[in-house]
Specification:
It is a single chain. By secondary structure, this protein is an alpha+beta fold. Helix content is 35%, strand content 27%. Strand 1 and strand 2 form a beta hairpin. Helix 1 runs antiparallel to helix 2 and helix 5 packs parallel to helix 6. The longest helix has 24 residues.
Length: 270
């Protein structure tokens, strides 16, 4: 089993996330090439995605050779320590490809299936969000917390969309039903940064159907440690390979039930 504390795992996550963000920033200066696609022709993988993940994997393996690693772009690496790292080399790849600011490196560590440490580092700026279980959440080393919740009609909600046509159509219909009930909806392109925005109080909630563990693991912990609630709920549409519990929801604990009820009415949830 691991002999590292959540704080020690957080510090390693922070270090490798910054190193990955630095590499992504350097590669962006030289121009970005699309290396492959995933779920559709517009769901892209860049050479930087692969290079950043390879770098982070090498740093984690050198520091903790017995740990497992789950990455978005590479094969799963088994381990024997009880610790598994969950890596998204570039969350918001399309933003990165176009030079838009909402893209980040996300690195989380879980122990026996529970996320206990994580870091999200914005690629353009190096802005850092980090958390360790029981130790609170920070932005660039300063404590952060969720904002007090206004009535539902005054809440700013963040969301995102998948890249498959039928998935996008379903998500758009759900968002259209939710929009009249809230202050407004924003779509900025990075699940990890969206959850961190809720954690720091610059948004009221986040919902999206279909994100994967590498998208939300680190930021979900940041939100929880900032006083929010983060959960996976049963969705109204099947997403392979997660037919249920595929709707990612993050919001302050205050007003959580009201927001979830609104998601049900908008048919995000089953």
């Amino acid at each position: 089993m691991t002999d590292a504390t959540p704080v020690e795992l957080r510090e390693l996550a922070v270090a490798v996330a910054h190193e990955g963000a630095n590499l992504a920033r350097e590669m962006q200066l030289g121009g970005i090439d699309v290396a492959d696609t995933k779920t559709s022709s517009v769901d892209v993988v860049t050479e930087a995605d692969r290079a950043v993940e390879a770098l982070i994997r090498s740093r984690i393996t050198a520091a903790r050779p017995d740990d497992a690693i789950l990455g978005e772009e590479g094969d799963d690496l088994p381990g024997t320590s009880g610790v598994r790292w969950i890596v998204d080399p570039i969350d918001g790849t399309v933003n990165y490809l176009y030079g838009l600011p909402d893209c980040a490196v996300s690195v989380a560590a879980e122990v026996d299936g529970e996320v206990v440490a994580g870091a999200v580092v914005a690629i353009p700026t190096g802005l850092e969000y980090a958390a360790a279980a029981g130790a609170g959440a920070m932005r660039d080393g300063q404590p952060i917390g969720v904002r007090r919740q206004p009535p539902l009609a005054e809440r700013l909600v963040l969301t995102g969309f998948g890249y498959q046509r039928e998935v996008r159509a379903h998500q758009a219909a759900c968002v259209a039903r939710l929009l009249p009930e809230v202050r407004d909806i924003r779509r900025m392109g990075s699940c990890a940064l969206d959850l961190c925005h809720v954690a720091e109080g610059s948004a009221d909630a986040y919902v999206e159907a279909g994100p994967q563990p590498w998208d939300y693991s680190a930021a979900g912990l940041v939100l929880r440690e900032a006083g929010g609630t983060f959960d996976l709920l049963d969705g109204s549409m099947t997403f392979d390979p997660h037919p249920t519990r595929n709707v990612v929801v993050g919001a302050p604990a205050e007003g959580w039930d009201t927001f979830v009820a609104a998601l049900g009415a908008a048919r995000f949830l089953s």
